[in-house]
Amino acid sequence: MVRQTSPARLAKPESAADVVIIGAGIGGLSAGALLARRGLKVIVLEAHDRPGGYCSSWRRTIRHQGRMCSYLFDAGVQDISGIGDRGPLRRLLRQLQAEDRIDWRPVRHHYVKDGLRLSVAPDAKAYALQLQAMFPADADGITAFFVQIEAVYREMYADIDATGGVPTAPATIDAMMAWPARHPHAWRWMRQPFAVMLDAYLSDPRLKSFLTTLADYVTERPESLSVADMAPLFGYYFDCGYYPAGGSQSLADLLSAIVTEGGGQVHLRRRATRILLENGRAGGVETADGVLHRAPVVLAAGDVQAMLMDLLDEAALPAGYLRKLRAMPRGPSAIVVSLAVDSMPDLPARIFVRHQAMDFGIGNPSAIDASLAPPGHAVLTVLSLLSEKEAGGWDRTAEDYRAHKAMAADKLIDAIEATVWPELRQHILYRQVATPATFTRYAGTRTGNIYGAARGQWRPPVVSPIPGLLLAGAGTVTGAGVEAVVISGTIAADLIAPPARLAVPV
Fold first, then answer.
1. pTM (predicted TM-score)
2. pLDDT tens across 75-91, in order?
3. Cβ neighbours of residue 294 under 8 Å, at least 6 residues apart?
4. Which of 34, 94, 299, 305 has the most C-beta neighbours closer than 10 Å?
5. Structural fold of domain 7-53+248-328+458-496
6. What's the pLDDT tens digit per position in 297-350?
7. Comparing C-alpha atoms, which of 430, 499, 474 is closest to residue 71?
8. 448 contacts 455 by C-beta, under 8 angstroms
9. Residues forming beta bridges with residue 350, ordered by sequence position
10. Which residues sit opposite 22 in a β-bridge?
11. Rounded distance, CA 300 to CA 473, Å?
């Protein structure tokens, strides 16, 4: 039965706003910052002790050689797309008049895969030339492939000046009918599996593997990706990826500051326990401390299954929608090993490794931001994806949990020593290991999933079936990654209050 507000609940402490946002990840904060700038009163509720979700940072101080040394680690994000002139994150910051409030550092990639090594050139044309030198039999196909994938990428972002700074579907029948002619490459390829596009131009499986490397940013199953999924990732080659100086927390803190500068509130350590429904419509949020935060619009910007199935009575959702939500695969989790080392490795900011059938990434942000560690030291983050099935085996209460995660970390460190840094172990001063159980605990995700939901399947749109309730974040149709959740947050904000004028809340 749908929960209704009872007279007893009305006696609880209350606050009022135009919009209540559950979750201070980048999706929720993007929407909140835009709405606050547009004059709406915004309340953001976050269960953790800091904003940002996976785009946050944490500090550890340890004693080394008689002095206290401080190291800043990122929870997950170390390479951000969408910063090019037509990128959604760039357009968001421009709308917020905040482009100059973050120091963006370009990120270089290095690939070690199948016995081959490549330091990726800083632009796509030079990268294509590198690949042609490595795979001369596929030289013509490489040229043709890059022409096609860049055309798809540019066409996907071609209309953002008219769509609030983010790529969205055509808004009218006429625009929909004209879209294929105006975007011929995107129309041809977007719905095709990315593997089909690779096969159309290329033959060497090692080359195809190089060109699929960035799939790790959204899935452990690259075969599930369409061209529409992969083309935005090629923005890292066409428009570069960036790291915010001072750690990924810098972006979350900036967006939080903009919410408060606009008269809004960001409440940390404030867990939402119930979305209020009044006459079948969202009417606010109740938190664990018993406060009712009332608003005509609620934006649920956390784990999509938890938001819709834990904070609502299931009877409030249409049966077909609920079935799809229950059946939705959650996608990968990960093992993440954070290391403080007493040396600066000769490695770029991002390294992708395939070693003995194991794929993992290494973040070395100290290569571009020396402030994250003491002079001559560095912080490293190693991430290895786990399938949803593999993630299900991690239990913090199990007797062998500590030994299990130590073994997983040792395996990754062994692989790093075998491929890119043979002396790593002798330089480690501090090590912390996160597992799927860690992400379940701190991010509130049901299976420790880090990318919101699996690719290649139905994911809910921003507009929910409940009036007044919108969704944002990695579990929605826009997908995972900072750029993608910015898109979801921007779409939600534009539905609530379009940029040119305020609208009646949906």
1. 0.93
2. 999 999 999 999 999 99
3. 14, 15, 16, 17, 20, 276, 283, 284
4. 299
5. FAD/NAD(P)-binding domain (3.50.50)
6. 999 999 999 999 999 998 999 999 999 999 999 899 999 999 999 999 999 999
7. 430
8. no
9. 109, 363
10. 45, 300
11. 8
